[in-house]
Specification:
By secondary structure, the chain is of the alpha+beta class. It has a single domain, classed as Transposase IS200-like (Alpha-Beta Plaits, 2-Layer Sandwich), CATH 3.30.70.1290. 26% of the residues lie in helices and 24% in strands. It contains three helices and eight strands. The strands form three sheets. It has a four-stranded antiparallel β-sheet, sandwiched between helices. The two termini are 27 Å apart.
Length: 176
Amino acid sequence: MIIMRDNCTYGRRSIRLKNYDYSKNGLYFITICTQNRGGIFGEIINGNMILNRLGKIVENEWNDLETKNINVSKYCLMPNHFHGIIEIKFDVGVIHELPLRENDMKSRRKMLIPKLIGKFKMLSTKKINILNNNTGKVWQRNYYEHIIRDEEEYARISDYIRNNPRNWKEDRFNCR
């Protein structure tokens, strides 16, 4: 969505929670779709996702996000989308999207999750484009994120991720 700002420049409305600190301890469920929902990462055979070379690049880039303070072990790469859970193990502090200006102090956002997703999308796209000798987009512009609030929700989302390849025929991201 494009909105007009007071200074007559165009911008996009953020889908992130305005005052939420995305560097807080916690669990975050992430879904990212490929550009035009193209099935480029492999195929589902007998309920299992078989990664191709592009899928292996994405898997490696996701795993490279892991640090002693960030866990990314629960994920599922599908032909045209990706689901993962990011766990931040302790408050890592403020990370700003842009350098702060004095008059922007009220609008600062703590943006670790968006920074991680941006890094993941950028590096996987770069490596895929090098492999394909291309300069195109791999991922859609944004991503879906959900803050996991309790153990029951974590268990439900973990089951969803684990069973996603088996449920591909009914998956809303399956463009049949």
